[in-house]
Amino acid sequence: MGLRDPLYWLYERRVERELGSYDIPKHVGVILDGNRRWARTSGFANVKHGHQAGAEKIFELLGWCNEVGVQVVTLWLLSTENLSRPREELDPLLAIIEGAVRRLKDEGWRVNPMGALDLLPDATARAMKEAGSSTSDNPGLIVNVAVGYGGRREIADAVRSLLHEESAKGTTIEELAERLDLDHIAQHLYTRGQPDPDLLIRTSGEQRLSGFLLWQSAHSEFYFCDVFWPAFRKVEFLRALRSYGARNRRLGR
After folding, report:
1. For the chain, what is the mean pLDDT?
2. Which of 38, 77, 114, 131 is spaced 20 to 30 Å from 177 by Cα?
C-alpha cells in the first residue's frame, strides 16, 4: 500500500497535466452503476452498504468537477424501473438518496430535481423539491439529481407540458403542428436552459445508456468505465476527461 500510493499520485498528476491542452466539458452526465455488485464483491451481505458508499462518492465527484471547471453535472441515482425493486432494498435506498439530497442542499450545491417525482414516496419527493427550491439561486455548479428518471418518460413529460402550455394560450393542435420545432420540446425538458451534456460516463463496465438523457445526448461523447461506482477514483474521472478532450468532435458536421 505504501508503495502504491506515491505511484498513484504521480500518475494522477501526469493525467492532470495532460488535460491542460484539452477542452473541459461544460456538462457531464454520470450513470452511477455498480453499487450492488461492489457491495457483494466487497463481502457485504446487505447491498445498502454499496448504495451508501455510492452516495458518499457523489461528493468526491462534485469536488473534482469544481476543480476542473465543469458547470453542470447530471447524476442518475434511480430509474423508473428501479422503483419496482423489492421493498426491503428500495426503502433503504430511497432513505440514502434523501440523505444525499439533504446534504447537497446543506453544502450549498445548486440542486435541480429530475424525474417523475409523482411516482416517488412523499418523503423522497419532498426532499427533492425542498432541495431544488431552496438552492435555485445558489451560484456555481448545477447538480441535476435524477431520481425516478427515465429518458422516454422525460420526453413524454416535455410534450405533455408543451401541449398544456399551448392549450392555455388558445393554440389549436393544427397551429402547434404547423410551427412545432425541436426547441419547443427542449424548452420543456428537465434540463431546460442548460447546455446538453458534452460527456456521459457510465461505470461498472456496462456499455449502454439505458435511456439516460435520450434527447440531450444526441451529440454527447460516451465513456464507459469498468470500475464499480463506489470504487471510482479521481484518476478514472481524469481519464474520462482526457478521452473526451482527445476526440475530434464533429457534432454532426
Report:
1. 94
2. 114
Verify whether residue 5 is a known catalytic residue. Answer: no
Q: Flag whether the pTM goes above 0.85.
A: yes
200, containing H or E segment: strand 199-202
Feature table: binding site for Mg(2+):
33, 221
Nearest to 233 by CA among 109, 106, 53, 2: 53
Span 100-123, pLDDT tens digits? 999 999 999 999 999 999 999 999
Whether 4 shows a pLDDT value over 60: the answer reads no
**Domain that includes residue 41, residue range:** 23-150+199-245
As a three-state string, the secondary structure of 214-241 is CCHHHHCEEEECCCCHHHCCHHHHHHHH
In a domain, residue 253? The reply is no
Q: What pLDDT is attached to residue 10?
A: 86
Q: How far is CA 6 from the centre of its chain?
A: 31
Question: Which of the residues 5, 23, 82, 157 is marked catalytic?
Answer: 82
Is position 33 annotated as part of the catalytic site? yes
pLDDT at 253: 58
User: What's the pLDDT tens digit per position in 161-180?
Assistant: 999 999 999 999 999 999 99
Position 155 in a domain: no
Q: Which of 5, 23, 33, 122 is catalytic?
A: 33
**Residues making up the chain, counted from first to last:** 253
Whole-number pLDDT of residue 11? 82
DSSP 137: T
CATH value at residue 141: 3.40.1180.10
Dihedral (Cα; 48, 49, 54, 58), 10-degree rounding: 100
Strand partners, 142: 72, 110
